[in-house]
Structures are given as C-alpha cells and as structure tokens.
C-alpha cells in the first residue's frame, strides 16, 4: 500500500521538542507491514524504510516555518508573513501532490493541507487537531474543503472525541468522521515514580508560553506556591511576551528525554490550566502514562482525558485548584490516581504501533470503498 503522508511539523533531530509526535507516528507507520511510506514534511531523521519526497527548496522553507513556531503560530502573530505564508504553503503542497500521482492513499495532517488535493478520486485520511476547527471559521474554507472531498473516499480523524460533532456537522455528508487517538512511546510507561518526602512538593507545567496556553496558572498558583514549600516548575518555549513570576522555576523548552529522566519521576503531578482550543494534549497523555495525576482546567479537551476524581482533578476556580493540589499531595491518594491514569492510557491509547494499526485499518477501509466505486 503506497501512502503519502504530509505534515507541516517534524522534529529536526532527537533533541528537537517540536513535532515529536509526528516522528513517532512516521516511525510506527514505517514499521507497519505492507506499507510503502513517502513523507512530505520539514527536514528531520526518517526511518530507513520511509522515503522523503520533500525537495531541498521545500525543506528549507518548511524548516524556517518550524523555526517561527509553525503556520498556526505565524498566523496568530499577524503581519505580512501571516498572509503570505499560507499561500506559499498551499503552492508547495499542490506541487507535492502533482509530483506523486501513483500513491494509493493520502495521509494528510491538518485540514489546511487538504485544500490543494488534486481532483483524482484518490482516498484521503485527514487528521484534525483542535486548532484546525478555527480554520473552519474563515471565509470559504469550509466550502473549499467540501469541494476537494467530493468524489473520493475520505476519513476525517480528529485525535479527540469532542471534535467529532462539529466535524460531523461540517462534513458528515461527504466523509466519515473517525476519532483516532495518538499513541504513547513505551519510555513513558517504563517510568518509576518516587517522591522524596524530605524535598519540596514539585508540580510541573509543560506548555508553550502563550496567554491562552497558560490560562490563569500564575494568578491561581501564586497564593498556593509562593513561600509555601511547594515548587512550580514550568517548561516550554516562550512564544509570546510573557512575564514569568520570580517564584516560578522556569526552565525553557525541554526534550522528552529530560522530562522522562529528570522531572516526571519525582513530581507530584502535571498542571494545565489552558484555555486554548486543542485536541487531546499529548504531554498530558505522556504524563499519565508515567503515572502522574493531572490537575487541569475544566474544558472539553481536558474532560475527555482527565476522569475527575479518578485519574486527576478538574478545576474551575482558585479554590478548587488549591484543594486539588492539597488532595493529590497525600501520598496514598497520589499513587492511586497515578496508577489509574497509567492504566487508562495503556488500555485506551496503547503505543504508537497501536496507533499506526488504527490508521492502517482506515486506509484499508478507504481503499475498499475505492474498489467498490
């Protein structure tokens, strides 16, 4: 089965934190039997059995796009580049599609990358993250996407169930909407947690630093962290001008290896008070696979992961946030929640190889529809 996978995200190397999930997905698909995988993406280390089809000029431009934070971040910043970059991206995608007419299935990451699909009837699997739903609010985008979906089998695959309803409303008459969970690297399941009772209670927040991603983290945390014996350790790239309070331990961007070896084993849990539209945040799943309880803001993306009172606690006020931290600092409760979190992720998400098989079954279904047509 010849699969052309397209993505605007891909890590440069093993130390690059950006787009790590895409490297895991490509690796798992390349290991799947009977898959001949071609990849159009920013430059990075591909498995031996996968073939890069990105031209040098495209790779250079995509690398620069990754350096700016990606197409979504660039558009949020505004300015001339926010208008020109999407046009350039669509031109490159159109050229990539035309150069490879012999594929059996397109695996397209993010809705915008489907806009230049050629009118050739080939089946397409289109993945969707929470940010993609904002794209549907732009003039003509929904109509243009519906146009390229006609006359071909299409599966739209959000990575969280909460996106199924709006996608069904927009495209359900043309495509099947099938939520597909991403997988988890086995290294997270292998982490053994041990909290030192003689050390300060360490809580982690791993996020891009933007106002929406941080939410009320600093405001709600100051009273319960500053001069309390607790420590809030913040990891992630500075993507907006954010003033980090001096009582927060800010470490900048961290690699998955650093989090897995240095920080997750001794932490009380992971905090995310984001108000940002997102699918199913991968860092939360990885933390849960490591046995970390979650304290999260009450929003659809979090409620679909955190089983309130079982694998973590959802908060909607400073007071409920304070109570959540205090509850999970009890060692017995923390262990019970962490074990429940790991069990749920292992059962429902599995590994990246499990994820690849979920996609392969959809490829086969789409090809079956093509042959019947």
Helix content: 40-55%
What's the N-to-C terminus distance? 18 Å
The helix/strand order is EHEEHHHEEHHEHEHEHHEEHEHEHEHHH
Q: Quote the CATH topology of the largest domain.
A: Rossmann fold
Note poorly predicted spans. none
For this structure, what is the CATH homologous superfamily of the largest domain? Glycogen Phosphorylase B
Query: What structural category do the secondary elements indicate?
Result: alpha/beta
Strand content: 15-25%
Gyration radius, in Å: 21 Å
Count of the domains: 2
| Residue-averaged pLDDT | 92
SS element count, helices? 16
What characterizes the major β-sheet?
A: 7 strands, parallel
Order of strands in the sheet with most strands: 3-2-1-4-5-6-7
Principal-axes geometry comes out as elongated
Task: Explain what the structure shows.
It is a single chain. The chain is α/β, with parallel strands linked by helices. It folds into two domains: 2-183 and 351-372, Rossmann fold, CATH 3.40.50; 186-348, Rossmann fold (3-Layer(aba) Sandwich), CATH 3.40.50. Helices cover 43% and strands 15% of the residues. It has 16 helices and 13 strands. A seven-stranded parallel β-sheet has the order 3-2-1-4-5-6-7, with helices on both faces. It has a six-stranded parallel β-sheet with strand order 10-9-8-11-12-13, with helices on both faces. α10 packs across α14 (318-328). The longest helix is centred in the last third of the chain and has 21 residues, at 352-372. The chain starts with a strand and ends with a helix. 42% of the residues are buried. The model has no long low-confidence stretch (mean pLDDT 92).
């Amino acid at each position: 089965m010849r699969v052309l996978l397209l993505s605007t995200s891909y890590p440069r190397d093993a130390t690059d934190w950006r787009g790590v999930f895409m490297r895991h997905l490509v690796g798992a698909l390349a290991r799947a039997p009977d898959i001949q995988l071609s990849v159009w993406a920013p430059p990075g280390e591909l498995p031996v059995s996968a073939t890069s089809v990105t031209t040098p000029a495209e790779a250079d431009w995509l690398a620069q796009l990754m350096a700016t934070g990606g197409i979504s971040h660039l558009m949020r910043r505004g300015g001339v580049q926010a208008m020109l970059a999407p046009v350039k991206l669509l031109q490159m995608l159109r050229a990539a599609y035309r150069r490879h007419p012999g594929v059996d299935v397109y695996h397209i990451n993010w809705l915008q990358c489907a806009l230049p699909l050629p009118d050739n009837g080939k089946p397409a699997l289109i993945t969707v993250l929470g940010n993609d739903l904002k794209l549907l609010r732009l003039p003509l985008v929904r109509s243009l996407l519906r146009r390229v979906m006609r006359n071909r089998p299409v599966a739209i695959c959000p990575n969280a169930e909460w996106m199924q309803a709006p996608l069904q409303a927009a495209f359900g008459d043309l495509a099947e909407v099938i939520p597909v969970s991403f997988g988890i690297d086995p290294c997270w399941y292998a982490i053994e947690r041990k909290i030192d009772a003689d050390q300060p209670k360490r809580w982690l927040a791993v996020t891009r630093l933007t106002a929406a991603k941080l939410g009320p983290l600093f405001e709600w945390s100051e009273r319960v962290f500053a001069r309390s014996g607790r420590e809030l350790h913040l990891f992630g790239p500075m993507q907006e001008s954010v003033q980090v309070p001096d009582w927060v331990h800010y470490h900048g961007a961290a690699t998955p290896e650093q989090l897995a070896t240095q920080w997750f084993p001794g932490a009380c849990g992971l905090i995310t008070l984001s108000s940002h539209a997102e699918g199913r945040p991968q860092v939360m799943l990885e933390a849960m696979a490591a046995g970390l309880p979650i304290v999260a803001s009450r929003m659809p993306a979090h409620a679909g992961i955190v089983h309130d009172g079982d694998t973590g606690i959802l908060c909607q006020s400073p007071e409920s946030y304070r109570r959540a931290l205090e509850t999970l600092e009890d060692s017995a409760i923390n262990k019970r929640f962490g074990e429940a979190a790991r069990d749920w992720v292992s059962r429902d998400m599995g590994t990246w190889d499990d994820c690849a098989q979920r996609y392969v079954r959809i490829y086969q279904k789409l090809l079956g529809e093509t042959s019947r047509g």
